[in-house]
Amino acid sequence: MFLVGTDTNAGKTTVACALLRAAARAQLRAIPFKPAESGPAGPSSDRARLLASSILDRGELDELSPLRWSQPIAPGMADDPNPFVGRGASVSDVEAMLGRARWALARLEQRHEAQLSLIEGAGGLLVPMPGGSWLPDWIEGLRARPLIIARAGLGTINHTLLTVESLRVRELEPLGFIFTQLLPRDDASRSHNGTVIEQRSGVPCLGSLPYLGRPPSFPEDDGWLAPDFWPRVLAE
Predict the structure, then answer these.
(1) What is the domain range of residue 223?
(2) Cis preceding-peptide flag for 128 (omega within 30 of 0)
(3) pTM more than 0.85
(4) Annotated catalytic, 199?
(5) Where is it mostly found (predicted)?
(6) Which residue out of 34, 47, 49, 159 is catalytically annotated?
(7) Is 194 exposed, middle or buried (0-12, 13-18, 19+ CB in 10 A)?
């Protein structure tokens, strides 16, 4: 399952961590994976947060995220901006990089006998990725089904429906969408956003993660997930 945000900072890592904890409660062997990460390392990095919520041990941090750059920009731009700004082909080989990601993911899956892999993307759907590629190339290359992560408030109807349509143009049917609430303030649009998106797209709302505080205090039960979330996901 590939977590795709409607934008950067939509809450993908927070949802992934919450799902890893929910999988453990459901006695499912789920592992995290972030094929390409850009930005500073440390305990607040995406891969460190994913590791802390997972069944992986500290020695598997590099396999969890095999491709890394220190610049806090899109992974493709950190790798080589030239193909994205019209200055020629990439110096990197996207197939070689996808091969490294597949190998690292397969090792983790085999080692932990994983029933589910939660793969976190970078930013939104149309994000530059290593080797002159784009995020949909990585969803296809890792043979995953997309799950959309969207903010719960005003504007999410447009952002989520655009992401659904863009995925479908590429024959990548989303499993569903999950809302995140990143701020404690109320928003009158929240009461209808999920229903509007479902009615327009036919894509189900599979969860709504409330505001968790800072640092986040993760739910101790699965009331934020759709009742049939695990059967639906595992059936795919």
Answers:
(1) 2-235
(2) no
(3) yes
(4) no
(5) cytoplasm
(6) 34
(7) buried
